[in-house]
Amino acid sequence: MNNFIKMQGLGNKFVVLSGPLDLSAAEVIAYCKQFGDEPADGVLVVSPLTEHSVKMKYWNADGTLAEMCGNGLRCVVRFAIDSKMVQPGELIVKTDAGDLKGIWDGNNPSQIEVQVGKANVSTTPLELFGKQFFEVNVGNPHAVTFVDDLDTAPVKTLGPEVENNSRFPHRTNVEFVVVEGNNEISLRTWERGVGETLACGTGMVAAANVAVTLKNKTFPLIVNVLGGKAKVWLDEAGYTRMIGPAELV
Fold first, then answer.
1. Residue 95 bridge partners (DSSP)
2. Which residue among 69, 75, 174, 223 is the active-site one?
3. What homologous superfamily is domain 5-106 in, according to CATH?
4. 75 part of the active site
5. pLDDT one-digit tens code per residue, 147-199
């Protein structure tokens, strides 16, 4: 195995390696098992490109390659700057979902800003298992449903059913969302290829965009997850951004 470090963003756990490096599904699963008592949610490989850009590859815990990962993106920004692949400030992270900006001055690791993606929200509900889901693409796929109570939300039962539904040929992430007061939302996520996680960055962005589109919320939004919270807003180019932590474990 190559040398790696362990990182987490809002409880989303990652094994992070320097690239370029390609991994088999079996290798990804093996790396995730090295995280600790509980396996990592995925593996990030960060490769230097130019003095202002890096390449990010992300695999889910089941060994499948994903387009990108929002919480992982913040970890990539910190890893690239900490390891001196790029200088502190603004950088470009090339992902399979496109080129995305990251900003960190190298000081407070709880204040790392990333440009997650442009949200494509379908306002036509999809009826599945007696609930209405709204499809969102933020560079990767999501299905968002609104619930009254997160504690009783059927995340572990309905999550895998929706993830693997034939409607989604590449499977999907699934968000269960409660609309709060004071321009906040709270959610739990069933992540494609992983299961329920403490946070999902792209899921937070997907849920925020659906809440703004359908539930009279306005940006910026505070998005609460099991692992903490982050601020989400829309930039002038139409990309959803978030600011939050990336921590060494």
1. 98
2. 69
3. Diaminopimelate Epimerase; Chain A, domain 1 (3.10.310.10)
4. no
5. 999 999 999 999 999 999 999 999 999 999 999 998 999 999 999 999 999 99
